[in-house]
């Protein structure tokens, strides 16, 4: 027995000595933290997470060390999350590309947070320094290309050169000038210099232009920012498929927030390619949306989501159809907007299609002529060019007939009607051409006297002063279907999972729809479907006439190439669509 006690006593002394040594090392690192010598975080973590430390009793020293590690981990995790932020934009092919979206001030902020830690995080600090160097070089490159920002006396510069400066400054945005001014204010040499005053003047000029454009376009109750208004309809593919697209009230707290999406583009060409890709597909997609909305009920398309008048009689006089997208709305759910005074009596544009006040082209153009070069001005100029183009094409089309009577030729009516689609999608009004187009509209799409009286009643009704919350939300058409898709995705069989992976591989390799006429939809939720016949081809939903409704009740789809007299094409389950 004494020999066993001796061995236990020896082991206890050894472990006590090891615990004392471990505690002394921990105390030494803690003293370095308090003295500002900043030991490495991994050294402190290594002591706490060592196998022997797991058996040691808790003490004040270990608890203090663990609290320091937790404090450092919180800052490190937040810094890593900020540094991983990225944004996506579409290129000219409709695909999405990722770009870093981190702001220089965010990098400097997390750098200060890391410097204030009691421990040193060398790898994170090195990453922050690399980011700061890259952003500094990028900003310096832009400064070298700006002909306006020169270190000369501002009085000796010609004001006309400032206003009509070259393309080197068109890539600049309001955010760019904010960043430049932030750097200038930190510089002992540049602060209060002529370049500082010049940059302040340019920034204020662009800010005033952005503010006046917003005032010119925004409705009293707006659900869209200025970028969504000017770049065209990129939500058509989702609406055709029946994907829920709720609208939330838009309220910006600063001018930069109004134009925040434009900061994702780094050049004029990139912005123009994006706008061109949206506008080129707008007409074909709107025709497909009209066909889909004609087949839908008012409860599926009205902004009340079918709850406001669920038991109202299906009387046509109680509903209004949108002139552009043909969506149906309860007359009690809609309100009158000032722009509809420009439409002939009996015609209505819904909240999805009428996104702004639609100012006159002459007013917008005069504002652009006096504006400084910037990416914001390029965006407005692209919208102006698109306005000139669509109105010119529409006038050429309506010149094919003359007279004030209703046109009886169905084919000609359809052609003119589809030619007018880009005009009604456009958010800038060309007054002289609009008068001729309005006259042609009454001949192509006449309305009944009952519809005119209904529009007059809506016009006389008191408009809402405040926004009515989220529109197109809470319907069984949207939410229950979303739940069913999620549920089916969770119980997806191995076979359908394999088809889904195959679709991803196919899309990555060819990125092409097999339909004879592809509408080339672009959007965040464009869906695909695969033929389960012999061809195994992939199609966009909207290119083969499929919707979210049809995919809820059937589990296979055969394209028109693989159909037989005994097999008709029908949709597969939602989990087989991308």
TrEMBL record:
The keyword Metal-binding applies. Coiled coil: none annotated. GO terms for molecular function: zinc ion binding. Keywords: Metal-binding, Zinc, Zinc-finger. Gene3D superfamilies: Zinc/RING finger domain, C3HC4 (zinc finger). Residues 301-354, 512-563 form the Zinc finger PHD-type domain. This is PHD-type domain-containing protein. SUPFAM superfamilies: FYVE/PHD zinc finger. SMART domains: PHD (SM00249). The keyword GTP-binding does not apply. It comes from the Eukaryota.
